[in-house]
Amino acid sequence: MITARAAATFEPVGRSVAAARTFVRDTLQGWGLTDIVDDAVVLTSELVTNAVVHAGTTADVVCIRADTGVRVEVADRYPEREVPLQSNGGHHFGHPDREGGRGLLLCAALAARWGVEYTATHKQVWFQLDFPDRPAGTRAAGPALPSSALPIADSRVRVGVVQVDSGGLISAWNDDAQELFGYHPEQIIGKPLTDLAAWPHTPGTGTGVAEALLLSRWEGSYGIRGADGRVSPVYASHLRIRDAEGEPSTVCLLVRDLERAVLQSPMRGANVDTAETAERGPATDAFEVFIGSPAPDDLDGLLQRTVERARDMLDGDAAYLLLATDDETELEVRASTGLPSARQRFARVPVEAGTGRYGSARMPAVHEDLSAVPGAVPLLVNTGMRSVVTVPLKVEGRLTGSLGVAAESPARYSNEEALRLQFAADRIALAVERARLTELERLRRGSLSFLVEASDLLAGTLDRDQTLALMAQMTVPTLASWCAVYTVADQASEPELSYVLHEDEDRIDGLKALLMKIDPPEQVPTGGARSWSGPYDAAHAAALRTSLRSLSLGDSARPSSGPGASLATASAVGGETVVLPLVARNRVIGMLILGKPTDEHFRQENLELAEDLSRRAALALDNARLYSERTAISQSLQRSLLPPEQPEVPGVEVEVIYRAAGEGNEVGGDFYDLFPIRDGAYGFAIGDVCGTGPEAAAVTGLARHALRLLAREGFGGPAVLERLNAAILDEGARSRFLTLLYGELWPQHDGSAVLKVVCAGHPLPLRLRQDGSVEAAAEPQPLLGVMEDLELYEQTVTLDPGDVLLCVTDGVTERREGTRMLGDDGLLDVLTACTGLTAGAVAARVLRAVERFAPDPPSDDMAILAMRVPEPEPADA
């Protein structure tokens, strides 16, 4: 007798398989048939996959509940008879290694009854699952317990019954709910249940109360805020139902959290009859135990437990699980047991290994004796395994991995074991895929953070050597165990080993020596990582030669060091080694080498991250190269603008201090010069071009060279400056005004010195006498580079023995701290205290006063020129 019926139609697309599973699960859970839900979902998934993926038609799914069980019918619109027909020998299922057709095999294994029906337009496959044989009214039973072991509850256990309509509003509120939370029905009916929920999410899950109300069945803990404002922890059991008019609602049973045993369902797989279980003994299917237990949160833990359970389930000696890459062309080893995992982890094998019968990982395969087909399973070469069974992991028809179990004895496995393993793989495939996607998202977020930090570090330096060090330090040990960087000076140059780093500092010297002995990898401008066997081959050849030499030589000729160092180096580079080109501005500027120790492989995610890093590192390295080249050019040009060696002036002490503002600048807008004009006459100058940097330095070079040329042609001070003014104005838009103090110095036989100076808009020179008085040594005149017709004149100053002439640029007098400025008065005070000091001491004291005036470094160019006529030394008594 049919008691309930539900039907749905699904389009011929991959996502329909998941939708069909959800439909069957929700339908059976809504009918309270949780014991047979999993088997029904597995069978439905296979049959709907055959319809929408392989047959390419829509699929009609019908669930029928009867008195003795549930019947599920899956119909497609492809009535061709490619299904097994009955014969005298029973059902002939074909071979389980086929890509499709496993749905009927599973029906035969799991269903109580099943069959195939045809019409002119449809093909229908149906199966029936009978209800478990239990006492009437009993779904599950626990063992008899002593009173002391029973859960504790109040003497009066209250179960609040709350009904919530499709809009989430409370439509019913019983007396126990009123006693538990203090609300009368008229106060609470019509309000959303979520308004009372104090915890928006169930602890330990990502499901909120609002989402839980939409599920067909849900159990968990949350809080209800009572009428007194206090939160009461409750344990809830939700059941979504439908009334006679088809309107859905949710019935919520609520008890105090400490009384959860009243509502809490037993774990799946709980024993129905303790005595019967004791007779049967423990569960024999280890994989079923795994499915029923809480799965590990992390992907590696889930995969490791999967291979262990698969090995135990088939009584194997080893097991392994591989995950498919995004393009489904390769499989990557992610977990194994009974195999050398350190050697196999992250190793890759192609999905399509050949054209033979078992050449594709997309189909189940059974190898009865691997010795008869050497290399059929590359992962098991030289492991001692003789027989193996492998099955694919698929999600919605897409290959996501492969699970294999192997044994040391031949002929251990048959198609029956393949069917059992495939059934287990189908159950775990979705959980593995979800865990893989979660891990992939976590890795991508970590990769993004890593690349952001790497970009910041690489952008923070323009030094080539520091950039090379950063490249290596960011990859070791995060991405690789060791790293080497080769650089290429130009297209015609051979790669040069520039940096080597190993996570074990004691291995760096041996690794560097090894790489220096072998040819560098070939330069390939194409992106992507490629394997390089050079270090591995060279290291093992060297270790072999050292070992043979140590064994063949006598004690007297035995080398002082044994093969230990060579073997250590061979072990350090014995794993996978990859080469990543460093390409910047369409030119190969180097190569980044990453390596692993013996038998280790790179993960694909790490290689992709290394490729991203290599692109950023290449650009940073090329920027450092360009900066170094331009800095060298700039420094060379700037040095050409500085005066050559300072000449010795007889009878006069001369000291010059020069500071150019700006990082990397050696020449700015301020300049000085001291040069011989003719016998007994010297020219000196100190000036300030408007502005700083290269533009001002260009005018500086013009002024200095023009002064020397004109002075040596015999022109006097005013004529020299007038012609320089005309030259500056000839520069047009590039011209800049210039303040200049120019003079000619004649040391005298009596120990004094005569100076003829012209001060064109420049800070006035200061004369310090022996008595400590300070006075200006010239008068101000118009600056250069502004007016065409200048009428300048020179003034004569005589420096007596002990006198000092101080000339500075405005970078000294305009030194600031906030609104304060050193100024002319401040400079005057500093100079007044310099009586009796040498020219060098005077210049140093002025510089110290400027630096101490403010904590910040000076922001303007600065030049200080001090000349002193020394006092005659006293005659010997």
From TrEMBL:
It comes from Streptomyces iranensis. GO terms for biological process: regulation of DNA-templated transcription. Keywords: Hydrolase. CDD domains: HATPase_RsbW-like, PAS. It comes from the Bacteria. SMART domains: GAF (SM00065), PAS (SM00091), PP2C_SIG (SM00331). PROSITE patterns: PAS (PS50112). PANTHER family: STAGE II SPORULATION PROTEIN E (PTHR43156:SF2), STAGE II SPORULATION PROTEIN E-RELATED (PTHR43156). This is PAS domain S-box-containing protein. Residues 161-191 form the PAS domain.
